[in-house]
Q: What sequence folds into this?
């Protein structure tokens, strides 16, 4: 594998989703082996103290690498690794290309460039879009009353998480609310992606960063400030992703990304609702109501449906920035 081919593989692999679009995955070419590492400078120590989201994000990048190889006719031998931290990087996986790509991976790889996060809301989804779609790690909720309940739980969970001023500060660090921000088009969450008008973007740092949000939250207005229920209710389904309690979150991230690409192939867009898994009380309530097995843990959720309009283009670092 020459340098140009490696860079082309990374360019496709790095389109995988990540928490807050932090893009923590880094790639290294070691002979014929592609290594994926986690850049620990892109951790979310407040929102993700156990590195669950970091590992899920890097797992998606591993799967992205496998699919990028499949698009070029290769299968892949993947070995997950928990190597020591060196120069701020933690080894995630070693991937060795093999002859003859898996036919299913070749098909799924075609969806990588089409997959986008859509936060603006949904139009009614045809029920056939969800037909015969099952996975051991996914509970697909289509009942309207259950979606209504989950939409409310997303807002409640978000409000609980947002009570922490440290969490809000960390979130603001990854929000790109001004177009003159040098990272506006490279990482984090910019105004278009957040579906935020200019006036709201102007005042968001003042509200989120200071005592005003604390006061409003104390008055019980938290769910209204961070509320997404109206748009969440329009989802054709909400997919709840769960994994064995002591299982690898990197492996969970691989499965999560494949599932999102399968949704893309069905003509659907996705909008993560990680707050359902981040807040312990909500996670327990959802797991109980949706009958998620007791030996499995809810690690993410995805609102799914047909986009109600144009979806903002993704923002990404350059290929050279993610190769180490």
A:
């Amino acid at each position: 594998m020459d340098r140009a081919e490696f860079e082309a593989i990374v360019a496709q692999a790095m389109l995988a989703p990540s928490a807050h679009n932090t893009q923590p995955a880094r790639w290294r070419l070691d002979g014929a082996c592609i290594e994926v590492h986690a850049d620990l400078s892109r951790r979310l120590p407040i929102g993700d103290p156990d590195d669950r989201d970091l590992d899920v994000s890097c797992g998606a990048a591993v799967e992205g690498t496998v699919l990028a190889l499949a698009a070029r006719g290769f299968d892949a031998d993947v070995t997950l690794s928990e190597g020591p931290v060196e120069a701020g990087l933690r080894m995630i996986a070693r991937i060795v290309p093999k002859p003859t790509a898996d036919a299913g991976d070749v098909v799924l790889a075609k969806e990588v460039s089409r997959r986008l996060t859509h936060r603006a809301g949904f139009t009614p989804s045809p029920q056939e879009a969800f037909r015969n779609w099952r996975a051991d790690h996914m509970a697909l909720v289509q009942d309207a009353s259950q979606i209504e309940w989950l939409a409310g739980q997303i807002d409640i969970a978000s409000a609980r998480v947002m009570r922490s001023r440290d969490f809000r500060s960390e979130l603001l660090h990854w929000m790109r609310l001004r177009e003159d921000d040098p990272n506006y088009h490279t990482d984090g969450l910019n105004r278009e992606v957040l579906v935020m008008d200019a006036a709201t973007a102007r005042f968001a740092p003042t509200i989120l960063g200071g005592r005003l949000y604390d006061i409003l939250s104390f008055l019980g207005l938290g769910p209204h400030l961070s509320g997404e229920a109206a748009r969440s209710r329009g989802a054709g389904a909400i997919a709840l992703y769960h994994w064995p309690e002591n299982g690898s979150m990197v492996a969970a991230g691989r499965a999560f990304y494949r599932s999102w690409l399968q949704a893309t192939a069905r003509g659907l867009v996705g909008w993560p609702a990680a707050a359902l898994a981040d807040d312990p009380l909500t996670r327990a309530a959802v797991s109980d109501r949706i009958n998620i097995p007791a030996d499995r843990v809810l690690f993410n959720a995805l609102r799914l449906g047909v986009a109600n309009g144009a979806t903002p283009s993704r923002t990404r670092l350059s290929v050279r920035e993610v190769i180490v």
Summary: The mean pLDDT is 94.
